[in-house]
Write a structure and sequence with these properties.
Elements lengths: L10 E4 L15 E7 L6 H5 L2 H9 L1 E3 L2 E2 L6 H10 L3 H4 L6 E2 L6 E2 L4 H4 L10 H7 L4 E4 L15 E2 L8 H12 L9 E6 L1 H9 L4 H23 L6 E6 L5 E2 L5 E3 L9 E5 L3 E6 L4 H8 L6 E5 L18 E5 L4 E3 L1 H8 L8 E2 L13 E4 L7 E3 L2 E2 L3 H9 L10 H4 L5
Parallel strand pairs: 2-9, 2-10, 3-20, 4-21, 7-8, 7-9, 12-17
Antiparallel strand pairs: 1-20, 3-19, 5-6, 10-19, 11-18, 13-14, 14-16, 15-16
The structure holds adenosine monophosphate (AMP) and zinc ion (ZN) (2 copies).
Length: 411
């Protein structure tokens, strides 16, 4: 089945801090799950964001959060809220086809995002509501679909133009609802950092600025929570879906060098190429790509290495090409746009093999029901769901995580 990176969750530091009051009971606890898309594991030390650094010091953090492959946004956000591997929840990519669902899944197609047939498993907002809690999603992949016949009580249709301040204010509005209506589980999502990482690369000044700007928004949230008198109930679980690797014009794999892109149904490009020949001749297209570029590993769907956990998955295209870290797969049409300065070449991307260090993300868990001063070794994002269920005192649905990995984080 799916890989298990053997990871002893090691507590490497226990700088003890004393809390004045005992942790409130689980039936009072609130979890705010915050995703800072594309926050690479090392940004916390490199950028020293004041609010996140303080929350990490007052709670626990990991040296990295290991994503699932491909290290893309939708698959990993959905793993975070279900505890499931991609093979088990079905979101195997940001872009995919299904043998029986017509059309194509993509992040920009509102209809498919709301179509429950794509989404397997039990997202935590449904786990919580089934057990009598209220849940609210200030954006999260999957929150717009009625999965298993349910949806969070509160959710917003994705709109990346909604300013971060409005996202924070919406969350605070929900938190100010009267007891009984107040959510016990909430999500909050920020995309600025991923955008900056793609446009300028992980080492750019713009990326640092974006990280600090998101940190200020988290700071506004923390202040708002305090003003609402909820500090002793709110637990922050702050994560990212993946990291970011720097790209270069010197590390481009141009598909046209091997085949005519017009002869293929190319569902996904970089760094995971997913394609099917329009004439049905898989072997011919496979041979055209296989072993042709030293930094592109090409597989038939059924032969994907076991470590990825996706071999033979029906939502994968019949041919999959995986670029090595820092390499980008593109077309002659696209490089022409860069040459003519109609568009800038990307500065960074993600999606690579999840064992690559640059693909690791952020994990901070901080609040009255969480231990203080702990630093954990990198662990897989499948375990976060069990932790959040334990904090708000609900029974988790069946999932691929192991509670033993996270139990030491709880107070
Ligand atoms: P990626 O291509 O994997 O880097 O995806 C990042 C992008 O996903 C962000 O810039 C957002 O525009 C988009 N995104 C994130 N969450 C959602 C959502 N809930 N619905 C639609 N698009 C989203
Ligand atoms: Zn992302
Ligand atoms: Zn991205």
């Amino acid at each position: 089945m799916f890989r298990r990176i053997a990871l002893g969750l090691l507590v490497v530091l226990t700088a003890i801090g004393c809390r004045p009051a005992p942790a409130p009971p689980a039936d009072q606890a609130i979890v705010i799950l915050i995703s800072i898309d594309g926050w690479r594991w090392d940004y916390l030390e490199r950028f020293a964001p004041p609010t996140l650094s303080r929350l990490a010091a007052e709670g626990g953090r990991a040296e990295g959060l290991i994503p699932q492959f491909p290290s893309k946004t939708f698959p990993n956000h959905y793993t975070l809220v279900t505890g499931l591997t991609l093979a088990h929840h079905g979101i195997v990519s940001n872009n995919m086809r299904d043998p029986v669902i017509p059309g194509r899944y993509s992040m920009s197609n509102r209809d498919v995002l709301a179509d429950p047939r794509w989404w397997g498993g039990d997202p935590i907002w449904n786990t919580a509501e089934r057990q009598g809690k209220v849940a609210a999603a200030m954006f999260w992949p999957g929150s717009e679909a009625r999965i298993g016949g349910r949806q969070a009580t509160h959710w917003r249709a994705f709109d990346d133009d909604l300013p971060n301040s409005a996202r924070v204010n919406q969350l605070l509005e929900w938190l100010k609802l009267p007891e009984g209506k107040r959510p016990a589980f909430l999500t909050l999502y920020f995309s600025d950092l991923d955008n900056a990482g793609h446009d300028f690369g992980p080492d750019a000044e713009q990326t640092r600025i974006a990280a600090l700007s998101v940190d200020r928004s988290v700071g506004d949230l923390v202040k708002g929570v305090a003003a609402a008198g909820l500090t002793d109930r709110v637990n922050y679980v702050i994560v990212s879906d993946h990291g970011m690797a720097a790209l270069s014009r010197d590390r481009m794999i141009v598909v046209d060098d091997y085949l005519d892109p017009a002869t293929a149904d190319i569902v996904d490009w970089a760094p995971v190429l997913a394609l099917a020949p329009k004439d049905g001749d898989v072997e011919k297209m496979y041979a055209a790509l296989k072993d042709k570029h030293p930094h592109l590993q090409v597989y038939r769907r059924d032969e994907l290495p076991a470590v990825y956990g996706l071999a033979g998955h029906p939502r994968l295209s019949p041919i999959i090409g995986i670029a090595d870290e820092g390499w980008f797969i593109t077309s002659r049409t696209e490089t022409g746009r860069w040459d003519r300065h109609e568009r800038d070449a990307p500065g960074g991307t993600h999606g690579y093999d999840a064992r690559t260090k640059s693909m690791q993300g952020l994990f901070i868990a901080s609040g009255p029901r969480l231990q203080r001063g702990l630093i954990f070794k990198p662990f897989e994002n499948i375990h976060v769901y069990n932790l959040m269920c334990a904090v708000i005192g609900i029974q988790p649905s069946q999932n691929d995580g192991d509670f033993a990995v996270v139990k030491d984080m709880l107070r």
